[in-house]
Design goal:
The structure is a single chain. By secondary structure, the chain is mainly α. It has two domains: about 5-75, Orthogonal Bundle (Arc Repressor Mutant, subunit A); about 95-160. About 60% of the residues lie in helices and about 5% in strands. The chain has five helices and three strands. The chain has a three-stranded antiparallel beta sheet. It is elongated. The model has no long low-confidence stretch (mean pLDDT about 80).
Length: about 160
C-alpha cells in the first residue's frame, strides 16, 4: 500500500471501530457501514476516496482488518470495536482451530525472553567480578597480606 492508502486505512479503522460519528455515519448491529455514506462522509472531511481505493485497502491490509459484503455496498472492521451495540457474531475458537505453530512461536518468544534475562544477570555478575578483581589488583602487598590473614582466621574459626 502507498502512504496515502495507509493513511486511509488508519482513518477507516478509527471510523469503523471507534468513531463512526466523525464522518456522520452509523454502524448496524453487526458493525456494517454503507460504503457510499462512508465515502461521502470522508469527502466532507477532506479525504477524497473512490471505491477502488477502498478495495485496495481491504484487499491489501496485512492484518485483514476490514471486509466487504458480497456486493461491496457495505464495509466493516473485523475486530476491535469500541462502539456500543456492535456484535460481530464471531464464534469462539476451539483448541483444534489453533495451529500448532502458534504454540511454538509463543514458546520461542518465552525462551528468548528467559535467555535474555539470564544473559543480563551474567553480565551483571561478570561486571561485579571484574570490579572486584580490579580493586584487589590495586591493593598494595601489605593490604593483600592482611586480607589473606583475615580470611585464614575466618576459615579457622569456621572449622572449630
Amino acid at each position: 500500500m502507498t502512504k496515502q492508502q495507509e493513511h486511509i486505512s488508519k482513518f477507516i479503522s478509527l471510523i469503523l471501530r471507534h468513531k463512526p460519528e466523525a464522518v456522520g455515519i452509523t454502524l448496524d448491529s453487526q458493525g456494517w457501514a454503507n460504503v457510499q455514506e462512508l465515502m461521502n462522509g470522508m469527502k466532507e472531511q477532506g479525504k477524497y476516496i473512490e471505491l477502488s481505493d477502498l478495495e485496495i485497502v481491504v484487499d491489501q491490509d496485512s492484518k485483514g482488518r476490514y471486509s466487504f459484503n458480497d456486493d461491496k455496498t457495505k464495509i466493516r472492521a473485523n475486530q476491535g470495536h469500541s462502539v456500543k451495540g456492535v456484535d460481530l457474531n464471531l464464534k469462539p475458537l476451539s483448541s483444534k482451530d489453533i495451529p500448532d505453530w502458534l504454540y511454538l512461536a509463543q514458546i520461542v518468544d518465552l525462551l528468548n525472553l528467559y535467555l535474555l534475562k539470564v544473559l543480563n544477570q551474567w553480565v551483571v555478575i561478570m561486571c561485579i567480578c571484574l570490579i572486584t578483581l580490579k580493586q584487589q589488583m590495586m591493593l598494595d602487598q601489605e593490604e593483600k597480606r592482611k586480607i589473606l590473614i583475615q580470611r585464614f582466621l575466618r576459615f579457622q574459626q569456621q572449622r572449630l
